[in-house]
Amino acid sequence: MTVTAIRLAGVGKRFGGPRSPLVLDGIDLDVAEGEFVCLLGASGCGKSTLLNLVAGLEAPTTGSIEVPGDGAAVMFQESALMPWLTARRNVELALRLRGVPRPGRRGEAERLLELVNLADAAEQRPHELSGGMRQRVALARALAQDRTVLLMDEPFAALDAITRDLLHEELERVWRETGRTILFVTHNVHEAVRLAQRIVLLSSRPGRVAGEWRTDAPGLDAQSVAREITERLRKEIASNAA
Amino acid sequence: MPPELVRDVLAEERRIAEERRIAAGEAAESLAPRPSTASGELRALEAGLDRLQTAPAEREPWWRRAARGILPPIILLVVLLAVWQAYTVIAQPRPDLYPGPLDVLASVGSAWDTGRLQLAVGTSLERGIVGFLIAAAIGTPIGLLLAESRPLQRAFGPFVSGLQVLPSVAWVPAAIIWFGLSDATVYFVILMGAVPSIVNGLVAGVRQVPPQLRRVGRVLGANRAELAALVVLPAALPGYLAGLKQGWAFSWRSLMAAEIIATGGSIGFGLGALLDQGRQLADLSAVFVAILAILFIGILVELAVFAPLERALLRRRGLLPAGGAR
Ligand SMILES: Nc1ncnc2c1ncn2[C@@H]1O[C@H](COP(=O)(O)OP(=O)(O)O)[C@@H](O)[C@H]1O
Ligand SMILES: [Mg+2]
């Protein structure tokens, strides 16, 4: 009954020729429409690579990737805002590139900034904003793309814990209000358990799906799930020592 | 080992997130809002945090900034002039070899009265500006072309850099043979001096654009033209401006070189000619007048045109410390 938004089948990726190391190997992953999936794995295991493949920034070496026809919105670890544009104009840029005619842009940008509680900072430039505010502008910009799928690559990793926790709450609220399909990359087990409905663990070298956990079942003991995932992740990492 | 996957459970279980939120807390998260945070409370928290994490930028009034920038060089100038004058008064050197500030001032007066100074400044400044604008008009498209095409950049890059090292005076003899003693000669020399700087500045500016910004542009759906116009060019602006600034300096220098060497013909009376005239008359005060005029105009254009542009550009991007001190 659920509609699949993203479907990866047998996706493999190497950078360079057939002798270069395999970064991703045989990834099968379906994400349902409206689902919030966290992709978890150690640093360097290929999470960003996988996300870039889904975003269409790179082509897979093997396998196939299906995303909605309009593509996906992406949010990166660094906010990657245009430093010469105000917060509002950054959002307007996304609207413009989406083809929204000029008269509607300003109001829409202000509405999106209001959604991430940044209406007052609309006329400020990125360097005048805190890290958390910049990421919220980036979120508003990603929402401005108006795509059903939102890809997020460790968007909160560089933030302090208090800010990050607020942004978790903010993101969850936005997700609930907008019904986006979210594929969220992180190396932080707590973050994954906190946010996701489903967690997909990637192994390292090559990146393969090493486990999946549902984290939205009723009565689920989050702490024990987190412990279980952490243990599994550590085993994965330790296996690379040999 | 992975627990069984439940494929079709969806939205209605989202409220369970609340339990999770308590259980999964990291150490620092004990400070975080309670799970039941109402939307209004979240907003207040967020606004408070935003306040705490941003310092309101305090901007100095413009006159204080100007005073801080202009005062030190003026004080230094006054001191230097005083030392020079004291030396002339105390040591009494030959005035035809070592004119004092007052002699030079008198020379400025006479050059002004005869109108030669205004004529020379007017001629040179006009040619310098026109030549610079032509150089920018030629250098910008070339720079864009080289910046966007790797093979072209590899092929032409060394030549452009080489031209930048070659003093453009070296072109004067060839230019005189090709164009005679005409404005064309002067403009040719200016172009050979300024275009490479502008091209290099633009190429360097584009190369320094963070790859992340291009990726964002692509993710946002920009095509090639939109990517260039809305992302790459604005991001490359500081490098481009630096190239233009250097291009102006090279224009002005090349112009003076050309004017000193190539005089007469249909080449008008510029600062270079004024300088050369002083040399022929062995009038050192007049020579100093010309040198000071050349220097003064160079500094003026830098201070009045490029410095404010650069400051505005960098301040918008947060690349200047607040207050605009440089
Ligand atoms: N453009 C690239 N060219 C070559 N190797 C790359 C490239 N991008 C990533 N890699 C390699 O792929 C592996 C996975 O990288 P990445 O996807 O960034 O990991 P993660 O995001 O999980 O930390 C790393 O070993 C990295 O060196
Ligand atoms: Mg990464």
Automatic annotation (TrEMBL), chain B:
Q: What compartments host this protein?
A: Cell membrane
Which residue intervals define the domain ABC transmembrane type-1 in the entry? 121-305
Can you say what this protein is called?
Sulfate ABC transporter permease
InterPro entries assigned:
MetI-like, MetI-like_sf
Q: Which CDD domains match?
A: TM_PBP2
Q: Which family, according to the similarity comment? A: Belongs to the binding-protein-dependent transport system permease family.
Key words of the record = Cell membrane, Membrane, Transmembrane, Transmembrane helix, Transport
Q: Which gene encodes it?
A: ssuC
A GO BP term here is:
transmembrane transport
